[in-house]
Every structure is written in structure tokens, then in C-alpha cells.
């Protein structure tokens, strides 16, 4: 198979693993996410296990993968190189956290829940895209 | 408080998310950051770099569906077996939340996956600072909404 074909197949598999992981981990349930952020209530540790499992797996996997000269289906690894902190990074993260706490959705779980689409979720997806557009215009 | 079943499901789900990130790096050399992948898909559609983003989205959406089709257990709180939980608020709240999540991840260059999973795994100082920041504002927001205003579930 040509790499033009392999790239979308690789993308699908990555998305599938991600969606399966979110669903199995309970991250497609906003109540679990808000429960994790609710330190003063009946704290739900599930998200900590999801993030922990993901970070440890990725940490080990990246060390192995990034030793290779290049990815399998493209020319080069595309890694962020900046290391400085700035107001855009921290201000953006702060605003994101407020929206995350209000809804219990970050972008992955919100889109992964598309098959259970409700009016509130549709509203959130629409303004999320509008927010991305606005960030590009102003950023 | 510590429910071992949901914690183990969480750990297994996290490992799958990690495998997804490693696979995307190994094959396409990309960070598995959902806000970056999907915003570029919707807004820019870069030539030669759009098809994989579209299939990634299809995979992301089909993950929960395949789990359901296989009769697999989801991990929705208080609803054993359910795979997708209900939204936490009505349309008005979600319109505001969506704008904050979109604009925030847009100018902050990432969300829970790009900064939280991939960035922390690379020990990136920017991602560590971003993750700490959105965790703190998320925790404060839930505290204000649930315990000071008394709204929400």
C-alpha cells in the first residue's frame, strides 16, 4: 500500500484507540470529570487513573519511538520546541480550565460523545469551533 | 470513595489513550493533541495533512460505538454499563463552556491530551505549566459552581 493510503489508516487507528480509551475510562461521562475536579465533594479519582495510565504509557512509548530516525509513514517527527512560558499559554489554559469545569468536557470526550449527540453537546461543539476560530483571528 | 472497578477501567482506558499517542508518533510523527488535530481539520484543512485528521475523528467517534457493539462495559458514574454520559448542563451553560474551551485551547496551544498526556510525557515545561493551570481553574470553577453557588448536579 502507498503511504498516501497508509496515513489515513494510521489516523483512524489512533482515533479509534483514543475513543476506546476515553469510553472505557469513563471520560465520556462529564459527571466523572466534574467529580474528579470536585475536591470538596465526593471526589472521583477515575480521571487520575486515566491520566496516569496514559502518561506512563506515552512516556515509555515515546522514548522507544523517538529513538528512530523518522516516523513510519512521514518524513520527520513534528515536535513542539518552545520551552518558555507566556501569558497566551497560561491565560489560554486558565480559560480552558473554566470551560472544562463548567461542562466536564474537554475536546476529546466532547467529540468522542458525538454518537450520543444532545442539544447541549451540539451547542458546546459549535461554540468550541467558534472559539478555535476566534483564537486564530486574535492570536 | 475509591471504587476499584472504575479505577481499573480508568487505568485500562488511560493505557489505550497512551498507545494511541505512541502509535500516532510512530506512524505520522505527530502529537496526539485533540484540539490541534480537530481545529486544523475544521479550520485549515492543510493539503496532504487532512485525510488522517478526518479519519482520526471518525476513529474517535467510533471508539465508544464499537465498545457498545461488542457489548463492552462503559464506565459512566451511577449507570453501570452505560458508555456515554449525559451533558452536565443545558444549552446556555454549554454555549459558554464551549467558547471557553475552544478559545482557551486555541490560544493556549493544547488541551488535556496535547499538554496533559503528550506534553507531560515529554517533560515539557510549557505543558506542565498549562496542565497545572487548567487543573487549578477547573477545580476552582467546580468549587464555585457546586459549593458556593450551589448550582450544577
From TrEMBL, chain A:
Source organism superkingdom: Bacteria
List, alphabetically, the InterPro entries matched: DUF6691
The reply to whether Membrane figures as a keyword in the UniProt entry is yes
Does this UniProt record's set of keywords contain Transmembrane?
Answer: yes
Q: Which residues cross the membrane?
A: 49-66, 87-105, 111-135
**Keyword annotations from UniProtKB, A to Z:** Membrane, Transmembrane, Transmembrane helix
The name on file for this protein is Sulphur transport domain-containing protein
UniProtKB/TrEMBL annotation, chain B:
Gene Ontology annotations for the cellular component aspect, listed alphabetically: plasma membrane
Keywords assigned? Cell inner membrane, Cell membrane, Membrane, Transmembrane, Transmembrane helix, Transport
Q: Where in the cell is it found?
A: Cell inner membrane
Q: Which InterPro entries match?
A: Sulf_transp_TsuA/YedE
- Is Phosphoprotein there in the keyword field? no
Q: Where does it primarily localize? A: membrane
Segments passing through the bilayer:
20-43, 50-70, 82-107, 128-149
Q: Which domain of life is it from?
A: Bacteria
- Membrane topology reported for the UniProt record: Multi-pass membrane protein
Q: Which family does it belong to?
A: Belongs to the TsuA/YedE (TC 9.B.102) family.
The protein in question is named: Sulphur transport domain-containing protein
Q: What is the lineage of its organism?
A: Bacteria, Pseudomonadati, Pseudomonadota, Gammaproteobacteria, Oceanospirillales
Amino acid at each position: 500500500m502507498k503511504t498516501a493510503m497508509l496515513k489515513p489508516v494510521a489516523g483512524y487507528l489512533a482515533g479509534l484507540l483514543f475513543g476506546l480509551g476515553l469510553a472505557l475510562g469513563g471520560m465520556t461521562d462529564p459527571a466523572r470529570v466534574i467529580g474528579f475536579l470536585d475536591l470538596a465533594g465526593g471526589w472521583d479519582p477515575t480521571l487520575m487513573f486515566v491520566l496516569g495510565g496514559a502518561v506512563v504509557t506515552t512516556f515509555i512509548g515515546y522514548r522507544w519511538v523517538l529513538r528512530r530516525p523518522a516516523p513510519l509513514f512521514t518524513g520527520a517527527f513534528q515536535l513542539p520546541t518552545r520551552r518558555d512560558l507566556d501569558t497566551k499559554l497560561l491565560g489560554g489554559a486558565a480559560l480552558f480550565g473554566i470551560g472544562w469545569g463548567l461542562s466536564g468536557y474537554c475536546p476529546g470526550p466532547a467529540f468522542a460523545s458525538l454518537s450520543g449527540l444532545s442539544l447541549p453537546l451540539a451547542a458546546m461543539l459549535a461554540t468550541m469551533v467558534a472559539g478555535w476560530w476566534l483564537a486564530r483571528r486574535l492570536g | 470513595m475509591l471504587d476499584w472497578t472504575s479505577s481499573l477501567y480508568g487505568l485500562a482506558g488511560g493505557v489505550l489513550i497512551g498507545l494511541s499517542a505512541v502509535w500516532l508518533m510512530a506512524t505520522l510523527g505527530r502529537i496526539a493533541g485533540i484540539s490541534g488535530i480537530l481545529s486544523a481539520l475544521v479550520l485549515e484543512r492543510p493539503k496532504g495533512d487532512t485525510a488522517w485528521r478526518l479519519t482520526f475523528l471518525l476513529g474517535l467517534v467510533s471508539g465508544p460505538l464499537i465498545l457498545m457493539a461488542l457489548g463492552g462495559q462503559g464506565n459512566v458514574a451511577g449507570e453501570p454499563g452505560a458508555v456515554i454520559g449525559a451533558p452536565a448542563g443545558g444549552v446556555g451553560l454549554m454555549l459558554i463552556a464551549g467558547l471557553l474551551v475552544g478559545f482557551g485551547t486555541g490560544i493556549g496551544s493544547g488541551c488535556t491530551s496535547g499538554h496533559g498526556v503528550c506534553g507531560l510525557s515529554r517533560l515539557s515545561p510549557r505543558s506542565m505549566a498549562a496542565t497545572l493551570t487548567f487543573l487549578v481553574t477547573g477545580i476552582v470553577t467546580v468549587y464555585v459552581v457546586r459549593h458556593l453557588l450551589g448550582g450544577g448536579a
